[in-house]
């Protein structure tokens, strides 16, 4: 999916049906992976409650950042299927092509989230 609007529709469906969701994205030289496993986890709307208009359209990205993000996401899906390893729950895992590093960006569950807050 190229747009945040489509990602949010999938997020809402996953929350309403209590289905695990792995979100993978990339922009510029950065890749991101985020996992919502169950109702105790924050959802994608908790991570991006009010994105600026500039985030709603496709962004430029280095191909290698996309590749790294996809590999991170595939790893999360495999961990869910095997019930093994640490998932990116409660944080967004970010990779930087520029700094050759990975970061954990905290994402807290918002009790007032219109998507997952009342569950």
- The number of distinct β-strands equals 4
Question: Would you identify the regions where 5 or more consecutive residues have pLDDT less than 50?
Answer: none
Strand content: 15-25%
> What summary fits the major beta sheet?
4 strands, antiparallel
What structural class do you assign from the helix and strand content?
alpha+beta
Total helical segments: 3
Helix and strand run:
HEEHHEE
What is the mean predicted local confidence, pLDDT?
A: 89
Query: Taking Cα atoms only, what radius of gyration do you get, to the nearest Å?
Result: 14 Å
Silhouette: globular
End-to-end distance: 26 Å
Oligomer: single chain
Question: Could you give the order of strands across the largest sheet?
Answer: 1-2-3-4
Helix content: 25-40%
What would your notes on this structure say?
By secondary structure, this protein is α+β, with helices and mostly antiparallel strands. It contains 3 helices and 4 strands; from the N terminus they run αββααββ. The protein is globular, with a radius of gyration of 14 Å. The chain starts with a helix and ends in a 13-residue tail after the last strand. The model has no long low-confidence stretch (mean pLDDT 89).
Describe how the helices and strands are arranged.
Elements: H1 4-16, E1 21-27, E2 30-36, H2 44-47, H3 63-82, E3 91-96, E4 101-106
Antiparallel strand pairs: 1-2, 2-3, 3-4
What is this structure, in a nutshell?
The protein is of the alpha+beta class and 119 residues long. 31% of the residues lie in helices and 22% in strands.
């Amino acid at each position: 999916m190229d747009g945040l609007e489509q990602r949010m529709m999938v997020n809402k469906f996953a929350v309403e049906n209590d289905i695990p969701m792995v979100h993978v994205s990339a922009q510029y030289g950065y890749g991101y992976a985020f996992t919502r496993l169950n109702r105790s986890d924050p959802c994608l709307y908790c991570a991006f409650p009010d994105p600026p208009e500039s985030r709603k359209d496709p962004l430029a990205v280095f191909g290698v950042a996309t590749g790294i993000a996809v590999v991170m996401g595939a790893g999360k899906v495999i961990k869910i299927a095997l019930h093994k390893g640490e998932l990116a729950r409660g944080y967004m895992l970010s990779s930087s092509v520029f700094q050759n590093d990975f970061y954990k960006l905290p994402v807290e569950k918002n009790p007032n989230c219109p998507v997952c807050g009342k569950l």
